[in-house]
UniProtKB/TrEMBL annotation, chain B:
InterPro entries in the cross-refs: NADH_UbQ/plastoQ_OxRdtase_su6, Nuo/plastoQ_OxRdtase_6_NuoJ
Family, similarity comment: Belongs to the complex I subunit 6 family.
GO CC list: plasma membrane
Protein name: NADH-quinone oxidoreductase subunit J
Protein task: NDH-1 shuttles electrons from NADH, via FMN and iron-sulfur (Fe-S) centers, to quinones in the respiratory chain. Couples the redox reaction to proton translocation (for every two electrons transferred, four hydrogen ions are translocated across the cytoplasmic membrane), and thus conserves the redox energy in a proton gradient.
Membrane-traversing stretches: 6-25, 32-49, 55-79, 91-110, 145-167
């Protein structure tokens, strides 16, 4: 679809301009739904946690409160962005941009369905997501430093040390997926899981599935790992000095990273857009009409619900316990599992290694 | 101009400018950030040169981890820039001399005489399915396996050395260490003792009070 658009555009303008315009359109097509999902994910979060705590959640704006995100957006847009005195003005403004740019850029390689429904079907897709997501830490570090505030700086130090630590466990979990799938292309990884729920990688890589999701929680600074914004200790952490839209941009970045982590988990461990009923005689025909992206979105929705559920359930970790979990529990587990996968690969175990 | 050339010139320009800014800017934190930008744009240039694995690993390792730790240190130090810049004019002639020498050497080795377009054919164009990662991995783990293992051992020694240098066990009288194994292994019987004893009936208060009267 986009190839024909590019061909049509290049018939009457420079080639590079045609490519640039096509890329821009592709980016908008991917980013707009993500941003809209972020808006209603915040609504879902408040509702889900509300009902878990026996309250109503937002219920004033629109029927059932479902226009709340729009009201929030209007409020954030009309508020003043206060720039603290003695702060570094340019870096203060750049920091939220640096936080959201990687969270958006990583979507370029996420496939949404079979037959190449993806902006860039590149070979090193997994590595690209990991590399781009690792840039996101600069938004936090710079915002903490540029704010010229002790609380913000402490929050930034905590958040970035935590992110760097959990990136290692995350990377090792991805290494095991690469070993099973024999590819770094996300579309190939999903295609390697064809044939029903027992072909998905979450069975041979069950510990890695947990490690990846826990690391994802820590990467996005979500509860129970949200020491970056421990209210009782350092107020709101690295974005304590931000107000209005600058604060909302940090919010957007955090939530789009949450959705990204859910997509990556669904793609690498839960069969992406594949139906769980493939290969089961009766059910395959019954559920055959459902398009692939519906399955993918259902899995992502479940994983996002887990994010909200954990936030309502678990108390916050203490900082030294977070570091202990990351370095002394998750990383050794991943290293051991790399060797276990090596053995599984050697003996050609089950339907996964062939 | 093709789109790839356009991208290359943009990235190369950003890399050159950010490199210059990195050495000329006053604030060390800003200098580190310019260096990060230089790394990212260089990674982009490597991507256009079909070295996608190296480009992405450059971002993952240097931008994502090394430079963040670097920034930590620079941010927490209170560096007096004026003091550092004091000897700038005094050492300028020496600095210019050294830099001229370095550039002359680089020109001799890397100049157009040896690395010009006429000496090297344009690189082979690979299709979209060509995996740069596999092309690096296969020789690394087969022909160069020993060198690879040696490098890994060196890194391991470095890790151990760094840990032993910073390891500091304070006495337990000073700091309370949390031993999670011990905490998990605690059973109710270790902390709580059931004692069997006869019931004690309290003496009737009213009777006692009555006696006094």
């Amino acid at each position: 679809m986009f190839d024909s658009l590019q061909a049509w555009l290049s018939s009457f303008m420079y080639d590079w301009l045609a490519v640039l315009i096509t890329l821009l359109i592709q980016a908008v097509v991917v980013i707009m739904p993500v941003m809209i999902t972020v808006a209603w994910l915040t609504y879902a979060e408040r509702k889900v946690i509300g009902y878990m705590q026996v309250r109503m959640g937002p219920n004033r704006v629109g029927p059932g409160g479902w226009l709340q995100p729009i009201a929030d957006a209007v409020k954030a847009l009309t508020k003043e962005v206060v720039i603290p005195s003695q702060s570094n003005k340019y870096l203060f403004i750049i920091a939220p941009v640096l936080a959201i740019a990687p969270a958006v850029a990583a979507w370029a390689v996420i496939p949404f369905d079979a037959n190449g429904v993806v902006v860039a079907n590149i070979n090193a897709g997994v590595l690209y997501v990991l590399a781009v997501a690792s840039i996101g830490v600069y938004g936090i570090v710079i915002s903490g430093w540029a704010s010229n505030s002790k609380y913000a700086f402490l929050g930034a130090l905590r958040a970035s040390a935590q992110k760097i630590s959990y990136e290692i466990a995350m990377g090792f979990a991805l290494v095991t997926v690469l070993m099973v799938a024999d590819s770094m292309n996300l579309t190939d990884i999903v295609n390697g899981q064809k044939g029903g729920i027992w072909h998905w990688y979450w069975i041979p890589l069950l510990p890695m599935f947990f490690v990846y999701f826990i690391s994802g929680l820590a990467e996005t600074n979500r509860a129970p790992f949200d020491v970056a914004e421990g209210e009782s200790e350092i107020v709101a952490g690295f974005h304590v000095e931000y107000s209005g839209m600058a604060f909302a941009v940090f919010f957007l970045a955090e939530y789009s990273m949450m959705i990204l982590i859910s997509f990556m988990t669904a793609i690498m461990f839960l069969g992406g857009w594949l139906s769980p009923f493939d290969g089961i005689p009766g059910l395959e025909a019954v559920f055959g009409w459902i398009p692939g992206f519906i399955w993918l979105f259902a899995k992502v929705a479940f994983l996002l619900f887990l994010f909200l559920w954990f936030r309502a359930t678990f108390p916050r970790y203490r900082y030294d316990q977070i570091m202990r979990l990351g370095w002394k529990v998750l990383i050794p587990v991943t290293i051991v599992w790399v060797f276990v996968v090596m053995i599984m690969e050697y003996v050609k175990l089950g339907p996964w290694f062939n | 101009m093709t789109f790839l050339q356009f991208i290359f010139y943009v990235l190369a320009g950003i890399a050159a400018i950010s490199g210059l800014m990195m050495i000329s800017v006053k604030n060390p934190v800003k200098a580190a950030l310019w260096l990060v930008l230089a790394f990212i744009s260089t990674a982009g240039v490597w991507l256009t040169a079909q070295a996608e694995f190296l480009g992405l690993v450059l971002i993952l390792v240097y931008v994502g981890a090394v430079m963040v730790l670097f920034l930590f240190v620079v941010m927490m130090l209170d560096i007096n820039v004026a003091q550092i810049k004091e000897g700038f004019t005094r050492y300028l002639p020496l600095g210019v001399l050294v830099s001229i020498a370095i550039f002359a050497l680089m020109y001799l080795v890397l100049g157009p005489d040896r690395f010009g377009l006429s000496h090297y054919p344009s690189p082979q164009e690979f299709g979209a399915n060509y995996s740069n990662t596999k092309a690096i991995a296969v020789p690394l783990y087969t022909t160069h396996a020993y060198a690879f293992i040696l490098a890994a051992v060196l890194l391991l020694v470095g890790i151990i050395a760094a840990i032993t240098l910073t390891l500091r066990r304070r006495p337990t009288t000073e700091v309370l260490y949390q031993d999670i194994d011990k905490q998990v292994k605690v059973r109710a019987e270790d902390r709580f003792r059931m004692v069997k004893m006869d019931a004690v009936v309290e003496a009737d208060v009213k009777k006692e009070e009555g006696k006094d009267e």
